[in-house]
Structures are given as C-alpha cells and as structure tokens.
Amino acid sequence: MLDLAAAIAHHLLIFGLFGVLAAELVLVKQSIDQAGVRRVGAIDAWYGVLAVLILVVGFSRAIYTAKGWPYYSHNAFFWAKIATFGLIGLLSAPPTIAFARWRKSGQAPSQSQVASIRRFLWAEVALFPLLLVFAAAMARGYGVIGPG
C-alpha cells in the first residue's frame, strides 16, 4: 500500500509542477503589470515547494518501496530522469530571480526581459516530456547498468 500511495503522490506532484509551469507561461506576457508580477511570484513559490516535495517523495519511493534502491541506483534512465529534473530546476532559477527583481523594482518588465524569461519557461516545458519518457522506460526495466 505504501508503494501505491507514494506513486500516486509522486505523480500528482509532477502534474502540479507542470501546472505551475503552465500558469507561469500564461501569466508572463508582454502586457504583464505589477499585479501580474505579484501573482506570478506567488505561483513561482509553489514551484519551489512542489519541486522539493517531488524530490522527497521520489527518493523515498526509490529507497523504501517495492523495487528498492538497488533497482533505481543501477538504472541509466533513473539517472537521466534525475539529470533532466536538475536541468529543469536550473532553468527555473533565472525566472525566479527575475520575478523577485520585477516585484522589487515596482515597474513592469521590459519586452526584452519578458521575452528572455519566456525562453527559459519554454525550455523547461520542452524538457518536461523527457521525464515521462525516462520514467516509463525505467519502470519497465530498461536502462539497467551493472548489478541490479
């Protein structure tokens, strides 16, 4: 039962993170005003919370549930998924910093600032499907390296 509960929680958190990312992409547009900046900043805080919870639940699943750490630690797709998640996390840093700067300045961001941040958000969106591909391959036993 723990395995099922952890899997459900992990999947709901991932979909929640994608929802937050989609909301940011919708809100960060050329016509964003200070109210929009505050809104996207509040939503972005949830991005960080969800990302941390995904790591906690995900590694808990890998260590304590059905397949166990030996299965995951010797799987190339597991590590590819972790690396992709890390890269998405790195790409999320410039938008987070920009949202804080925009809020602090009290002024609407310029068109070039918005365009730059949208590129980061789109890069995150573009990488997201890889998480699903790697998870599906890993769950089916592909990518085993060494003993495992």
Descriptive report:
- With 148 residues, the protein is an all-alpha fold.
- The mean pLDDT is 95.
- The chain has one domain (2-139).
- Helix 1 runs antiparallel to helix 5 (111-139) and helix 4 runs antiparallel to helix 5 (111-139).
- The chain has five helices and no strands.
Write the layout of secondary structure elements.
Elements: H1 2-27, H2 34-64, H3 68-73, H4 76-105, H5 111-139
Helix pairs in contact: 1-2, 1-5, 2-4, 4-5
Short note summarizing the structure:
With 148 residues, the protein is mostly helical. It contains 5 helices and no strands.
List keywords for this structure.
148 residues; mainly alpha; elongated
Overall strand count = 0
Query: How many structural domains in the coordinates?
Result: 1
For the biggest sheet, the summary is: none
* Computed CA radius of gyration, to the nearest angstrom: 18 Å
The H-and-E topology, N to C, reads as: HHHHH
Helicity, as a percent range: over 70%
Binned strand content = under 5%
SS-based structural class? mainly alpha
- Choose one word for the global shape: elongated
